[in-house]
Amino acid sequence: MKQRIFGLLAAAAILNLAAAQTAAPAPAAPVTAPLQLPLSAPATKAPVRTIPAANYVALGVYYYDQGNYDSAYVAFRAASEREPGNPEALLGLGRTQAKLRLYAASIDTLRRLVALNSRNTSGYIALAQAYQAQYGGTTDRSGVAGNLDEALKVLTEAETVSRAVGGAALNVNLSKVYNERGYVYRLKGDTVQAIAAFRQAGTLNPDNAVILYNLGDMYYASGDLNAAIDSLQQAVVADPRDAYSRAYYAKLLALSGNTAAARPEAAQAARLAPTNAYAVGQYGVVSYLAKDTLTASTQLQAAIKLDPLRYPEFYYYMGRLDLDQGLLQNARSDLTKAAALASTNWEYLYYLGLSYERGQGVTAPDRLKARESYQRALALNPDYKLAQDGASRVK
Fold it and tell me: How far apart are CA 373 and CA 332, in angstroms?
């Protein structure tokens, strides 16, 4: 709260300074004899300076880029109140509302934007993103079941508008539309359509690291590890300082068995972004796969400390590391967290069951909990051989 108050005070200072700089200077008053006013004369009021909407938009963009969405919301809302039809104000407001989980308000704002400015490609894309955000951010999806189809309709409109506007930016605008389609199809679980959309986006904008990352991610989800590695390698070439792409590329190299090439890539990603939990944690994953237990433990613990809830994968590999070292209590704790954060991952549940099946020293086996974990894994994937074997062992 204190930080927000200081931020808003700073915002007010910036806006007042901007208004003062844009206001015309008052002319110097001539030197004359003092004017005698009657006692009943009203006091002269200073003119009220109106801060332009553009100033609020600029401030909103600044706060949005800093991740300070509360203050960005205040600025964009003020801009839209001064100029209700300002497209930049409405775009910023709609995006910020989605970040603040005000999904219905975000959709309404962005609908208003495209109704007022039907050739605004960015507005259509932001509206499609708002539909996706509401779908992903809602626990009971019965009321938002049609959101993804609505997002696809909006993106069709965005494509039509982009082609009608044309110009030098046509391919880039279309690549944004296809990239967003890929996100929607991924949420729908349609891997084939998602890959097709990301590939089309990449054809239109071949050097875009984000698109190459997305395509690689979908190839990996489809089980095509070699294609995923190739796409992630291109993403690293396109943007060598992007720690996410480099860390993901390193992990895929390690999973393919090429740990010699993976380790320097993972280390470089962690150096590029030492406070990025994903980059730091993937260095730990690669180190585990390369059998460097000391580095693996150090990096995984650091990543979990940086972001305790976002990456269940790091708890999973910590649990694997604990299991390898016979630290069963630690393994059960870490694997329980991994399975809780990623409740549909049958591999995490299998290893949780394995940690309960084993016993060492004062830690006794718990066959009941082991059986429960194996059964949960099989409920998610009945053909998972490891869980089948585990369930047979603890009957």
Answer: 11
Task: Give CA–CA dist 228/89, Å, rounded.
Answer: 39
Residues 221, 215: contact at Cβ < 8 Å?
Answer: no
Domain ranges in the chain are 207-310, 311-395
pTM of the model: 0.82
pLDDT category, 40, cuts 50, 70, 90?
A: low
Residue closest to 123 by CA, chosen among 77, 158, 99, 152: 158
Write out pLDDT tens, residues 263-318: 999 999 999 999 999 999 999 999 999 999 999 999 999 999 999 999 999 999 99
Amino acid in the structure at residue 89: A
**What fold does the segment set 311-395 form as a domain?**
1.25.40
Residues contacting residue 381 through CB under 8 Å, at least 6 positions apart: 346, 387
Contact 323, 348 (CB under 8 A): no
DSSP string for residues in 64-116: HHTT-HHHHHHHHHHHHHH-TT-HHHHHHHHHHHHHTT-HHHHHHHHHHHHHH
| Domain 207-310 is found in CATH 1.25.40.10 | yes
Mean pLDDT, residues 341-366: 95
d(Cα 76, Cα 90) in Å, to the nearest integer? 7
**13 is written with which tokens?**
């200072």
Three-state secondary structure call for residue 363: strand
Closest alpha carbon to 112 in 83, 132, 71: 83
Tell me if 207-310 shares its fold with 311-395: yes
Helix (H) or strand (E) holding 62: helix 53-65
Q: How many Å apart are CA 343 and CA 188, to the nearest integer?
A: 18
Q: What is the pLDDT of residues 71-117, one digit of tens each?
A: 999 999 999 999 999 999 999 999 999 999 999 999 999 999 999 99
pLDDT (tens digit, 9 = 90+) per residue, 188-228? 999 999 999 999 999 999 999 999 999 999 999 999 999 99
